[in-house]
Structure to design on (490 residues):
């Protein structure tokens, strides 16, 4: 397994997009921290950028990589290797390099300027989000054979997780405004890893007061140790379940 | 060595393989013949585990190949269209394959690499290669690990006459070592002095599996091309 991971990572690192992504993150995080005199404020601005860019780059890069390495996968499958090993190696290679790019590009500035509990949490969440969207991209790519369609699906998925989902939640809230929705909202927020990440960090920043009554309910749940632990378990499930599904599909795929 | 029993595979509505039963033994050199889209490549890919068949089973040396992967270390496969990672050079490709299939018991067979003069092209990237050079790389990789079974899908398509001769010589040499060789080809005249058995497929159905002597005796034709043609007319 190590050998294939090695070849996947060498192949990815040879790609200039990875370098550009790292430099882009580095530029943004450094400028955000230098623009604000209060680095806690800088962290908040960085949060909004990270929640948009990290999922987008992770999901698109992974999907395109999977489609472009169709030949590589085909070659490996005809060799004495387990399909499970091949697929998981590609996953580890992709997740590892995207997480590394995030760590260098955004993690190091965060540790330099804002090495508080909030900063470290944001670093952790950025890493987890990178991996989650690699897993989702791999599931989408293995399900759709056509490259253009597959990349379209991944863009739609990103749009759904970062924009449409919020719209749907807002719609639900207005429709059921007469009912007590606050507790249900906690459940609904677990359906979107980006929302869950945002809530976790915002609560850590004590700006939940701005969120009204729902914010108080959130604080009651996500503010506790158990709530945070539970949220991280849910984020991990967002990695495990798509990976497991895509692995199952890849095992039965005709190449 | 390879026994396929009632193997069926559907791609949507199309039956690519329909109850195919075939036995291949050591020392045989089998030609897989049939029109385009008759399921030859699907059968080969099923044996390699690249296509997951719907029903039936295939065994390799008495072991079911489903959920097994180690048996592939005894197979050298040359695909019809060699598709390789674009960014790698030939040298890196060869190194990677050696790395993946490394085993102390294997004596590497680099004869084809030398004869095809691939050593001079090690720095070339795969995407810049011509179709024929790709085929040479595929062939070299198939023979590199000295496997017991060679599966060659249209080996000579795109090769120049010199390279074709080299490859044919190599196939004959390997056959003499008692290896099982499976070849598909449309150029029947090339197969004349190679094969010992013929499998004929049509629309996913295995029409017949005969030794070449039987085929010659039945049709009264000495050349494989003519023998097959006379069989096809009768069908």
């Amino acid at each position: 397994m190590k050998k294939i991971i090695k070849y996947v990572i060498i192949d990815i690192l040879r790609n200039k997009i990875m370098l550009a992504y790292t430099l882009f993150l580095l530029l943004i995080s450094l400028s955000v921290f230098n623009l604000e005199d209060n680095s806690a404020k800088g962290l908040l601005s960085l949060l909004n950028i990270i929640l948009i860019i990290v999922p987008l780059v992770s999901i698109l890069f992974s999907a395109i990589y999977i489609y472009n390495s169709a030949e590589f996968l085909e070659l490996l499958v005809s060799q004495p290797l387990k399909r499970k090993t091949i697929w998981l190696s590609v996953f580890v290679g992709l997740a590892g390099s995207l997480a590394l790019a995030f760590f260098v590009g955004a993690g190091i500035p965060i540790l330099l300027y804002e090495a508080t509990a909030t900063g470290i949490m944001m670093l952790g969440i950025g890493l987890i989000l990178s991996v989650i969207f690699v897993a989702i991209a791999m599931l989408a790519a293995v399900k759709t054979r056509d490259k253009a369609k597959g990349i379209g699906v991944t863009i739609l998925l990103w749009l759904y997780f970062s924009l449409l989902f919020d719209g749907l939640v807002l719609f639900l809230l207005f429709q059921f405004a007469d009912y007590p929705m606050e507790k249900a909202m906690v459940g609904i927020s677990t359906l979107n890893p980006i929302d869950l990440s945002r809530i976790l960090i915002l609560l850590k920043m004590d700006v939940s007061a701005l969120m009204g009554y729902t914010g108080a309910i959130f604080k009651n749940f996500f503010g506790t140790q158990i709530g945070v632990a539970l949220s991280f378990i849910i984020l991990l499930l967002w990695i495990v379940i798509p990976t497991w599904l895509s692995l199952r599909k890849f095992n039965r795929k005709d190449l | 060595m390879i026994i396929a029993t009632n193997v069926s595979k559907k791609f949507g509505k199309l039956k690519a393989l329909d109850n195919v039963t075939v036995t291949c033994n050591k020392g045989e050199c089998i030609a897989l013949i049939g029109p385009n889209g008759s399921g030859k490549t699907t059968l080969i890919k099923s044996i390699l585990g690249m296509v997951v068949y719907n029903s039936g089973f295939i065994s390799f040396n008495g072991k079911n190949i489903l959920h097994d992967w180690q048996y592939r270390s005894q197979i050298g496969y040359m695909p019809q269209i060699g598709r390789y990672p674009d960014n790698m050079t030939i040298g890196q490709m060869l190194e990677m394959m050696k790395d993946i299939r490394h085993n102390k018991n294997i004596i590497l067979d680099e004869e084809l690499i030398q004869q095809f003069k691939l050593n001079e092209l090690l720095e070339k990237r795969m995407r810049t290669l011509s179709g024929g050079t790709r085929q040479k790389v595929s062939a070299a990789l198939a023979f590199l690990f000295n496997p017991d079974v060679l599966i060659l899908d249209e080996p000579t398509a795109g090769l120049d006459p010199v390279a074709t001769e080299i490859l044919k010589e190599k196939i004959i040499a390997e056959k003499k070592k008692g290896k099982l060789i499976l070849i598909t080809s449309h150029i029947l005249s090339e197969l004349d002095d190679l094969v010992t058995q013929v499998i004929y497929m049509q629309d996913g159905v295995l029409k017949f599996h005969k030794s070449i002597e039987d085929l010659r005796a039945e049709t009264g034709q000495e050349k494989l091309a003519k023998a097959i043609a006379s069989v096809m007319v009768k069908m």
About this structure: The two ends of chain A are 20 Å apart (CA to CA).
